[in-house]
Design goal:
Elements (H helix, E strand, L loop, with lengths): L1 H14 L15 H26 L1 E9 L6 E10 L6 E7 L4 E3 L4 E6 L5 H19 L3 H8 L20 E11 L3 E7 L2 E4 L2 E4 L13 E9 L12 E3 L6 E15 L4 E15 L11 E8 L2 E9 L2 H19 L1
Parallel strand pairs: 12-14, 12-15
Antiparallel strand pairs: 1-15, 2-6, 2-10, 3-4, 3-7, 5-6, 7-14, 8-9, 10-11, 10-13, 12-13
Helix pairs in contact: 2-5
Length: 329
């Protein structure tokens, strides 16, 4: 009785077979069929290799949300060389909260030569080339994020003998400021506190000493993170008049970076540049110097490196092999 039930069950299962087998005596091979099979297997191999390369690759995902952190301090990293002696200039920050941050809190004034040595000029040329390529091909920034290249690459030391006395001042270091709009500036005279803001002792400096030609080796906001080359790194401006103003209008965007090599909270920024000669008779008012007016964006960007999961790769691979096999068959 059990054997009969088993035979009936097996016969029922055989009737449900959606893949009936053809006896080998009815199968005939041909040259055209072999050619199609060879093409099919070659195509499968090529597509499998391509799919595996896609599986190995990663991409950057950008997400945006409102920045709710306004209580912490913002770090400004500075490395600027001005073509004036250190005793003639002063740098500080004044924000919208009327809070003054003096340069003595974290900046170093170092007498240097303004003209670069041959090795330093090559470093500057390389940095400017990277900047130009980043402006043309924005996807290169994703490559820098994933590679976590150490940046900024510091300016190399002079390889030639410094026989002439220093004619410039390198201002480098960092400052901590409030997370509100502010103005970092380098102008004539040292900064002194004032009940209505602040002032600079510019009256003690002769106008013939004014020269705000400058080179920005590095300017960034927040934590120093590998893989970020900032827009103003490598910038050089030459003043055509002793009474000239250079202005940089900067929008700072808080950024959270999460890659397989690094995870950090930092800031990116965009900048608009303007320069003009101060001529009160012609209606061009202001003060000689370098002024960097920054403002913080209300949006925060989260950059995450993502990878294709294995199950998705397996499903895509099965689809490729099964699809080609069925189509050629």
């Amino acid at each position: 009785m059990r054997r009969l039930n088993r035979k009936k069950t097996l016969s029922l299962v055989k009737e449900l077979d959606a893949f009936p087998k053809v006896p080998e005596s009815y199968v005939e091979t041909s040259a055209s069929g072999g050619t199609v099979s060879l093409i099919a297997f070659t195509t499968m191999a090529l597509l499998t290799i391509m799919e595996f390369s896609v599986y190995q690759d990663t991409w950057m995902k950008y997400e945006y949300e409102v920045d709710k952190d306004f209580s912490s301090k913002l770090r400004i990293n500075i490395d600027i060389t001005v073509a004036m002696k250190c005793q003639y200039i002063g740098a500080d920050v004044l924000d919208l909260a009327e809070t003054m941050v003096a340069s003595a809190d974290g900046l170093v004034y170092e007498p240097v030569m303004f003209d670069l040595s041959p090795q330093q000029k090559e470093w500057q040329r390389m940095l400017q080339l990277i900047q130009s390529r980043l402006q043309e091909e924005h996807s290169l920034q994703d490559v820098l994020f994933k590679s976590a290249i150490k940046s900024p690459i510091p300016l190399p030391s002079r390889e030639d003998d410094l026989s002439q006395p220093p004619d410039a001042c390198r201002i480098h270091g960092h400052l901590y400021v409030n997370k509100v709009a502010g103005n970092f500036h380098i102008t004539v005279g040292k900064a002194i506190p004032h009940p209505r803001g602040h002032a600079h002792l510019a009256a003690l400096v002769n106008h013939d000493s004014y020269n705000f030609s400058h080179r920005i080796d590095h300017l960034s906001f927040g934590e120093l993170v590998p893989g970020i080359i900032n827009p103003l790194d490598g910038t050089e401006k030459i003043a055509i008049d002793y009474n000239q103003m250079f202005q940089y209008f900067i929008t700072v965007v808080p950024t959270k970076l999460h890659t397989y090599k690094i995870s950090a909270d930092t800031h990116q920024f965009s900048v608009t540049e303007r320069e003009r000669v101060i001529n009160h008779a012609a209606g061009s008012h202001g003060f000689s110097g370098i002024f960097m007016k920054y403002d913080l964006s209300s949006l925060m960007v989260t950059v995450t490196e993502e990878h294709m999961p294995f199950w998705q790769f397996f499903v895509r691979l099965c689809g490729i092999i099964g699809g080609i096999f069925s189509t050629t068959g």
